[in-house]
Amino acid sequence: MSIYPEIAARVQTEIDAQVGRDRLPTLQDREVLPYTDAVLQEVMRCSPVAPLGLEHCTSEDIEIRGYTIKKGTTIEANIWALMHESSSYPDPHTFNPDRFLKQKPDPDPRRFFFGFGRRVCPGQHVANNGAFTMCAAFMSVFNINAGKETLLEAKSHEKEPWRMFTAYGVYEPKPFQCTIKPRDQAALGVLEACRETEAIQ
Questions:
Q1: Where do the domains of the chain lie?
Q2: pLDDT tens digits, one per residue of 151-192
Q3: Closest by alpha carbon to 150, among 172, 179, 170?
Q4: What is the C-alpha separation between 92 and 1, in angstroms, rounded?
Q5: pTM, whole model, 2 decimals?
Q6: Choices 1.10.630.10, 3.90.1150.10, 3.40.1440.60, 3.40.309.10: CATH for 5-51+78-200
Q7: For residues 195 and 200, what is the distance between their CA atoms, to the nearest angstrom?
Q8: What is the distance between the alpha carbons of residues 183 and 137, in angstroms, rounded to a whole number?
Q9: Which of 132, 145, 45 is nearest to 96 (CA)?
């Protein structure tokens, strides 16, 4: 969000209008926060945590489309490639949450993000709901701004954003500069109320 301030502002405008400024968004607010949800989908599409999923191994010889895959072969799903396929996601290297709000939206990346078939992540619903709640709550009370060097790097990699992430294994951003501050007094009030509630519990 730090390198997309206009998208962050739009998320905050939606949260302010639908939830208000006196509490944090909850999972029950998800259906009235379609743009916020679309931003989370686009984050998942652009930056899958495990771009090659988890390794699997064939338990017997199998044939797929004329290719024989021997028993004991390691198989990985190229999730990153699936989510950057231009026939499914036009202009795939552009961060564009609106792709999920069209009359005919692009495919939901959560179909791939958590794996496939019988080996799909058993905690996918908990993770998806937790990510939404955490991100919406964060955006409702904080501004995140990229540092000058980060903005320059983002501009230089505008059509190659993956260059700002680690190359292999778990897909995570390389170190970057940013500033995170409460949005205003209303945000500070909500944060203080949360702190007091936590202290009581």
A1: 5-51+78-200
A2: 888 888 877 777 788 766 677 888 889 999 999 999 999 999
A3: 179
A4: 18
A5: 0.88
A6: 1.10.630.10
A7: 9
A8: 12
A9: 45
